[in-house]
């Protein structure tokens, strides 16, 4: 089992899983606080439905990839990697903006459902909150699996096992949130895992471009920029680990290198910028996500 693929899958499962667990835990804790524990079952129904549909989508995408012949398989894989990187980038910045207000928004939504609609609306609330995370996870994992498949034997299994471990850890963290353990600095957690996932997304983009070069869809900038295989080959040892985790290659084409840097540099700069806080009492402050 390839370690880089394992860690990449774990980071994805942990990050996405914690976001979903955080949402469900906030809803459950608020219901318990307001004396509405009898509605817990509806939350679990909505959550289970979202997880099930996300799993079906992930399996369907994975099976679809394996059903194509060349060059359509490479084209589909490249598309999956581009889509996964795009969805991940959107998710990172959405969570960065919404992190401070998500608790209040969820509690307000619960109040509206309990006072204005059917209590089964809570199941719909949980479903819609979790399905977004689930579909994003499925898309991103498919992108990682397709990239890992061409890197080393066992790469696909490493991604999937890592994702399951990450999701299990996320469930445990969700329980701690509900139980009242608040020692984890979630701002720091989301920032660090977000940084790691940005590097993974950059690797997916460059790997997708490499697939298009291989099938002849990109014919400009296909020359090798440098070759450091003698120092750090991408098919053994540390290089193989970096290839599975970050999309590293010891012989990058010009176009793949340009795409990698063109994504990585501006996205890192935007992600690390302080997030402006809404005006309070006429004064505007800024802090980091």
Description:
The chain has 289 residues and is mainly α. It has one domain. It is built from nine helices and two strands, in the order αααααααααββ. Strands 1-2 form a two-stranded antiparallel ribbon. α1 packs parallel to α6, α3 crosses α5 and α5 packs antiparallel against α6. The two termini are 35 Å apart.
Mean pLDDT: 78
Main pleated sheet:
2 strands, antiparallel
Question: What global shape is seen?
Answer: elongated
Rg over CA atoms, rounded to whole Å, is 21 Å
Query: What is the H/E string?
Result: HHHHHHHHHEE
In what order do the strands lie side by side in the largest sheet? 1-2
Distance between the termini: 35 Å
| Helix fraction by DSSP (H/I, runs of at least 4) | over 70%
Task: Please state the structural category.
Answer: mainly alpha
Please render the helix and strand layout as text.
Elements: H1 3-33, H2 40-66, H3 72-98, H4 102-116, H5 121-149, H6 155-179, H7 186-214, H8 237-246, H9 254-272, E1 275-276, E2 286-287
Antiparallel strand pairs: 1-2
Q: What attributes does this structure have?
A:
two-stranded antiparallel ribbon, disordered C terminus, 9 helices, 1% strand, 2 strands, 289 residues, mainly alpha
Brief synopsis:
The chain has one domain. 73% of the residues lie in helices and 1% in strands.
